Amino acid sequence: MNEHLDEHYSRLANTYDTTWEHRPDYLEWMAGKIMDSLRPLPGERVADIGVGTGLFVERLMACATGDAPVLAVDPSQPMLDKLPQDPRVRTVRATAEELVDGRGGFTPEPLDAILIKEAVHHFSDLDRTLSGLAALLAPGGRVLVVTLPPKIDYPLFPAAIDRFAEGQPEPMDIALALRRAGLDVTASYERYSVEIQRDNWLELVRGRWMSVLSTFTDAELERGLQLIGEAHPQQRISFVETFAFVLGRLPDDA
Ligand SMILES: C[S@@+](CC[C@H](N)C(=O)[O-])C[C@H]1O[C@@H](n2cnc3c(N)ncnc32)[C@H](O)[C@@H]1O
């Protein structure tokens, strides 16, 4: 992980969960979609790559045991520090790239389910990293990538929307990479309607809650906030979040 990103997540770790706290309905919705798609079974070996503070780890933990804990993998120690202390969770401080290259100093046993939620855009080499993760799967194992597509409808300022798009992989490219790695792949889009107080939204943007916002200077961000304020004079802002769900499955006879 580069220094800039490391700083971003170190700074965000303390407020990351409160960012979403006002949206427990979103967390419940997203956790349900993840579980319906990934379908981890009791006793299966599960990894959450780019786990962050572990917003979805509790649901995954329900299937885990002390012998087969959820592998919570993330390069940011301050984010990992927020995870629940529980024998059913094993933290691994590593990037996905380090994990697949064995540079994390750790090689997992074959995995039955891998979740990558809003972290795939940080992978430096999408094809290589996804095929490396696919190689960690046991026969019948699944990998689920949940990601925002490049074009988002967030009420941000135009430069942030454009820069976000530049750094975000196309879901179709993720699907192709998983297919090339020998997995059977399905993809779908899931939509979630957000309604948020304008001031709350401006506060999130000012706090640079998305990593792309950390790439703007203070002055650029202030100008951006002004543009958002002008475009959204009303008290509440509504928009639709669209997530791509790309699911790959290694055939049973692989
Ligand atoms: C937007 S957060 C998502 C966290 C969590 N999955 C969630 O949905 O709440 C992205 C996470 O990816 C991690 N990350 C950054 N680069 C990574 C990489 N190369 N491999 C794996 N994780 C990475 C960051 O440290 C951060 O915790």
Key terms for this structure?
alpha/beta; 254 residues; globular; 11 helices; binds S-adenosylmethionine; Rossmann fold; 7-stranded mixed beta sheet; single chain
The rounded distance between the terminal residues' Cα atoms is 32 Å
- What share of residues is helical? 25-40%
Number of domains: 1
Bound compounds: S-adenosylmethionine
- Please give the largest β-sheet: 7 strands, mixed
Structural class: alpha/beta
Q: Can you tell me the CATH superfamily?
A: Vaccinia Virus protein VP39
CATH architecture field: 3-Layer(aba) Sandwich
Indicate the CATH class.
Alpha Beta
Rg result: 18 Å
Number of distinct beta strands: 7
CATH topology: Rossmann fold
Strand order of the largest sheet: 3-2-1-4-5-7-6
Order of helices and strands: HHHEHEHEHEHEHHEHHE
Mean pLDDT: 93
Number of helical regions:
11
- Per the principal axes of the C-alpha atoms, what is the gross shape? globular
Question: In words, what does this structure look like?
Answer:
The chain is an alpha/beta fold. The chain has a 7-stranded mixed β-sheet with strand order 3-2-1-4-5-7-6, sandwiched between helices. Helix 7 packs across helix 9 and helix 10 packs antiparallel against helix 11. The longest helix has 15 residues. It is globular and about 55 Å long. The chain starts with a helix and ends in a 5-residue tail after the last strand. The structure holds S-adenosylmethionine. S-adenosylmethionine binds next to helix 1 and helix 6.
